[in-house]
Amino acid sequence: MGVPGIQVSLIIPAKDEEESLPELSQWISRVMTSHGFSYEVIFIDDGSTDGTWAAIEKLAAADENIKGLRFNRNFGKAAALQVGFRAAAGQVVITMDADLQDSPDEIPALYRLITEEKWHLVSGWKKKRHDPISKTLPSRFFNFVTSRMSGIRLHDFNCGLKAYQQVVVKNITVYGEMHRYIPVIAKWAGFTRITEKVVEHRERKYGHSKFGWERMMRGFLDLLTLTFIGRFAKRPMHFFGTWGVISLLAGLAFTIKILWDKLDAVFMSKIPLKREATDQPIFYLALVAVVIGMQLFLTGFLAELWVRQSVSKKDYLVLEKVGFNRSASDTV
């Protein structure tokens, strides 16, 4: 549960936030010192083009609690968080944005929710936001859709201010644009004690928003990907096989209809006979449905074989052990 002595790890991705970092670090220091926390601050420079890295180096030289990591280019917030998760040594890991819109004053309450109330993950809820409608409207839509699809009742999945038990961040993987869906990833990994806390959202003081409309489409596609992987990664036949059977049944129904019409024409001596089967559109519908059904079923079967071959001990998370040191023959 972390390096002894470090209670809180703060992970802060930064992209072109040179102006805000000194003020943010001073604010964090005041809060952590006043509450007696032992802590570390990990700034991740995500390919900044201004003096962000120089500011981090200066802060780290002046304060032993501050650390920095630098990407050689912009990899995105998810990559920054993943690297920060790997480096974090605190018992409680808290993420926040570097633009001063997240308040460090929220840290003690988040820490208490994790350590005393034993939540796996606490997500901030910016109930009152200071963002333009071009950002708040898409955010509300995606929060609604994500909540319904994931079954996690949160109002603000994309809030940068979140707190985690260390075991959570060490056993999830964040990539692409998946940082906004970390609660969903945590749930699929078995960390189901997830709640939210209303947090202060401040107006941006320096810089500008990195939000763009293209993120809305990428976010929606990532949600579909995450939902599929979460539900069917270990049982692909349940997805491909189900749709394959439905397609095969549809093809069978079309085929029976064709045969029925043919037999009806022959035995009822209907002259002239109906069109040949191959001249009817339904024939091609039946053919396509059967072929697609077989392909889906075969895809599910091959995916199932691949999953069973690739399963290893790393696919399972053991949080606690008891009695395994009693004999040399005990292995896990």
Oligomer: single chain
Order of helices and strands: EHEHEHEHEHEHHEHHH
Query: Roughly what percent helix?
Result: 40-55%
Give the terminus-to-terminus CA distance: 20 Å
The CATH homologous superfamily of the largest domain corresponds to Spore Coat Polysaccharide Biosynthesis Protein SpsA, Chain A
The residue ranges in which pLDDT falls below 50 over 5 or more consecutive positions are 311-316, 326-332
Under the CATH scheme, the architecture of the largest domain is Alpha-Beta Complex
CATH top level of the largest domain?
Alpha Beta
Identify the strand order in the major beta sheet.
3-2-1-4-6-5-7
Biggest beta-sheet profile? 7 strands, mixed
Q: What is the count of β-strands?
A: 7
Overview of this protein structure:
- By secondary structure, the chain is of the alpha/beta class.
- It has two domains: 225 residues, Spore Coat Polysaccharide Biosynthesis Protein SpsA, Chain A, CATH 3.90.550.10; 75 residues.
- The protein is built from ten helices and seven strands.
- A seven-stranded mixed beta sheet has the order 3-2-1-4-6-5-7, sandwiched between helices.
- α1 links the parallel β1 and β2.
- α9 packs antiparallel against α10.
- The chain is elongated and about 95 Å long.
- The protein starts with 7 loop residues before the first strand and ends in a 22-residue tail after the last helix.
- The C terminus is likely disordered.
What topology does this entry show?
Layout: E1 8-14, H1 21-34, E2 39-45, H2 52-62, E3 66-70, H3 77-87, E4 92-95, H4 107-115, E5 121-125, H5 133-150, E6 162-165, H6 166-169, H7 182-188, E7 194-198, H8 214-232, H9 236-267, H10 281-310
